[in-house]
UniProtKB/TrEMBL annotation:
This is phosphoenolpyruvate--protein phosphotransferase. It is found in: Cytoplasm. SUPFAM superfamilies: Enzyme I of the PEP:sugar phosphotransferase system HPr-binding (sub)domain, GAF domain-like, Phosphoenolpyruvate/pyruvate domain, Phosphohistidine domain. It comes from Pseudomonas benzopyrenica. Pfam families: GAF, PEP-utilisers_N, PEP-utilizers, PEP-utilizers_C. Its EC number is 2.7.3.9.
Length: 759
């Protein structure tokens, strides 16, 4: 059963559009279940009716014509009850409704299963048979499993279908809306530039080109490149391989020949297809043909063709990347955005980002917020590879994307962009004013940094210190561990730029979703695995080199603070302090005269919340990492779009934990700050101040908004709001109540400037 299921899902996945996906489903399921009829009814959201979309066994002319309301017929019953229905004699059921045009009177028994995707009923999958007998348990289980597996595929095909009519260039797409997760606030109106994953043939889209000669030339160069690589490889391995094995390389070279693959690709390019699309067509065709062969040896050849295809594609992509022109208003779209991709776009041209994978708390989203680029993450239904070059709107407030927006929508969102520009300009005036509430409470606002560009941005916005310098960022953009000397110079630059303001440097925090290409960590459960301090305590040499570099960099400046990430118990603090002390002694032995800097820990693991007081006794400061703390308290992966709506720092449990940390630290007379993204959310910042946090550290982009808001309230009001929110047990209600309270105070303007477009 599993093998059949898998095969059907695979086939449906490969279908080119919704129509073909549905017809594969009905054909294959009917055959697998040996029933006489299989049909799919999909719920049309506009009319709220289940429409017959595909059938094998009923009259095909009734497709698209027969439909029923949720309170009609057996299909309506399955859809509304969201449960399977298994009937020996359908006609005798009180909800049976007869549709003459389908010819279903011939079939006695009925088995229907709802198709549900993310809690939404999308349709009903039905099998029918002539014989009057109830389907057995195994058959029922098969249909239910089938329909659960197909739900996601159908949802995706449906979403892709909303941009149907797209030609090879993506033109002709009607306006369509795709929902993802808010990644970085703001609105971007621009043109899509798609970055495809390297050497993945399956996602290469079709595209028409006018300069056919240029494409042919690109392809010829790619062929030459791969031929040369093959020859070099064959030579390198010549001493280790037997003659027959060596001959494989000749087969590869033959396949590349003008008379073989090369020729087929060239013919397609000549029809106006770009080289990458032509290559995909030819290679996938051959792969499929080989895979279906009975002979095991020939089946294996599919892997060779695929490998060759990938190699050629890598060359073509390289050439494409080199001549890629980023328009003035680039919206970068990718399956999985990486910091390096953002770096490729020339300064000033990036107005939006879209990532199919990842969530609002993925590190690339944090980076986007620091750069102030509107971003939508987790756009799982967007057929991203097909949108290159088309107009897009990215609404980073609501996590929405519009493809080929109408002039009216462009105008509406254009107004929001302008409004935001004016708001930012207005807030610039706050730069040199203190963050002081109406009743005279001073709330220091610090920034989080990582990129060098953050320094200038932070200074422009009037940051009073650095609450989190993510040292892993310079490690991530390197190809090996930076040496002590290299680190020293990077850290010195940070410390000097902000001097005399304090700079909190976090020791290396890799693992989880932060990978170093040169230090791969492969784990089933990376967020619960070898992360942060766990890695550096296991590798004291990395820790020592890094902290020595930090200490040396602070010579004469003395504005360094050192912070330890992912602390889950006091033993880790003791071990770290032991190493820190050692580094300090070594550095002093080398003649560098520096005092021991303040040392703090991050509270981002639930155990640290309960031990806040114990930890506070051992350190000079505490800083809450609310991004990880939220993920660990709620058991919600911060990167997973599927559970993103469960990730919420307004969850009462998170708010209680934060209060507990503040109280624990203060009971030991230790200052406590927060450096997670929550601190940069203006509404949340009011609550954090009310809870008693001594410092808020956030991305520089949001700092002016937070400052503006805190200057308009009193500490007393903030404390009152904390008390009010503590009475509420539901995160969504806390959101609404808090936003409403701030709006009622006339302070809504920094919360969501795009609200008007949506209403
Ligand atoms: C956090 O977890 O809140 C934090 C600031 O660290 P990072 O986002 O880098 O994991
Ligand atoms: Mg963290």
């Amino acid at each position: 059963m599993l093998a059949v299921l898998r095969k059907i899902v695979q086939e449906v996945n490969a279908a080119k559009d919704l129509g073909s996906a549905l017809s594969i489903i009905v054909q294959r399921v009917r055959a697998a279940m040996q029933s006489q009829v299989c049909s799919v009814y999909l719920l049309d959201p506009d009319t709220n009716r289940f429409v017959l979309m595909a059938t094998e066994g009923l009259n095909k002319k009734s497709i698209g014509r027969v439909s029923m309301a949720p309170n009609e017929g057996l299909v309506g019953l399955v859809g509304t009850r969201e449960e399977p229905l298994n009937l020996e004699d359908a006609a005798s059921h009180p909800r049976f409704r007869y549709f003459a045009e389908t010819g279903e009177e011939r079939y006695a028994s009925f088995l229907g299963a709802p198709i549900i995707h993310h809690r939404r009923v999308m349709g009903v999958l039905v099998v029918q048979q002539k014989e009057r007998r109830q389907f057995d348990e195994g058959e029922e289980a098969f249909l239910v499993t089938m329909s659960a597996q197909l739900a996601g595929v159908i949802a995706h095909a449906e979403a892709t279908g909303t941009i149907r009519g797209l030609d090879r260039q993506g033109r002709g797409i009607q306006e369509a809306r795709f929902v993802g997760i808010p990644g970085s606030p703001g609105v971007g109106v621009g043109k899509a530039v798609v970055v495809l994953p390297p050497a993945d043939l399956e996602v290469v889209p079709d595209k028409t080109v006018t300069d056919i000669d240029a494409e042919l030339q690109l392809f010829r160069s790619a062929l030459e490149g791969v031929r040369a690589d093959m020859k070099a490889l064959s030579k390198r391995l010549s001493t280790q391989l037997r003659k027959e094995e060596q001959a494989l390389f000749d087969v590869y070279l033959m396949m590349l020949d003008d008379a073989a693959l090369g020729n087929e690709v060239t013919t397609i390019i000549k029809s106006g297809q770009w080289a990458q699309g032509a290559l995909r067509q030819v290679v996938m065709e051959h792969v499929q043909r080989f895979e279906l062969m009975d002979d095991a040896y020939l089946r294996e050849r599919a892997a060779d063709v695929r490998d060759l295809g990938r190699r050629l594609l890598a060359y073509l992509q390289q050439a494409h990347q080199a001549c890629l022109i980023y328009p003035e208003n680039t919206i970068l779209v990718s399956e999985e955005l990486s910091p390096a991709m953002l770096g490729e776009v020339p300064e000033g041209r990036l107005v939006g980002l879209i990532s199919v994978l990842g969530s609002g708390n993925s590190h690339v989203a944090i980076l986007a917020r620091a750069m102030g680029v509107p971003t939508v993450m987790g756009a799982v239904d967007l057929p991203y590879s097909k949108v290159d070059g088309i107009d897009l709107i990215v609404d980073g407030y609501h996590g929405e994307i519009f493809t080929n927006p109408s002039p009216t929508l462009i105008k509406q969102y254009g107004d929001v962009v302008e409004e935001e520009r004016q708001l930012t300009q207005g807030l610039d005036a706050l730069r040199s004013l203190p963050c002081e509430t109406l009743d005279g409470h001073r709330m220091p606002l610090w920034v989080n940094t990582g990129l060098m560009a953050d320094v200038a941005r932070a200074q422009q916005r009037g940051a009073e210190g650095v609450g989190l310098y993510r040292t892993e960022v310079p490690f991530m953009v390197n190809e090996r561990f930076p040496s002590e000397k290299e680190q020293l110079s990077i850290y010195r630059e940070q410390l000097a730029a902000f001097h005399p303001a304090p700079v909190t440097m976090r020791t290396l925090d890799v693992g989880g979703d932060k990978a170093l290409s040169y230090f791969p960590i492969k784990e089933d459960n990376p967020f619960l695995g070898w992360r942060g301090i766990r890695v550096t305590l296991d590798h004291p040499e990395i820790f020592l080199v890094q902290t020595r570099a930090m200490l040396k960099a602070s010579e004469g400046l003395n504005n360094l603070r050192i912070m330890l990430p992912m602390i889950s118990g006091v033993h880790e603090v003791e071990e770290s302090q032991h190493l820190l002390h050692r580094a300090w002694c070594e550095v002093r032995d080398e003649g560098v005269d520096i005092p021991m800097p303040p040392v703090g820990v991050m509270v981002e693991v639930p155990s640290a919340v309960y031990q806040a007081r114990d930890l506070a006794r051992q350190v000079d400061f505490i800083s809450v990492g609310s991004n990880d703390l939220t993920q660990y308290l709620l058991a919600v992966d911060r990167n997973n779009p599927r559970v993103a709506d469960l990730y919420d720092y307004f969850h009462p449990a998170v708010l209680q934990a934060l209060q507990q940390v503040v109280d624990g630290a203060h009971a030991e007379g230790v200052p406590v700050s927060i450096c997670g993204e929550m601190a940069g959310d203006p509404a949340a910042a009011v609550l954090l101040m009310g809870m008693g946090f001594d410092t808020l550290s956030m991305n520089a982009t949001n700092l002016p908004k937070v400052k503006w808001l805190l200057r308009q309230v009193t500490l007393e009001k903030a404390r009152e709001l904390v008390q009010q929110m503590r009475q509420i047990d539901n995160p969504q209600v806390i959101h609404s109540a808090l936003h409403l309270a701030l709006r009622n105070l006339g302070l809504g303007r920094v919360i969501n400037p795009a609200a008007s477009v949506q209403s």
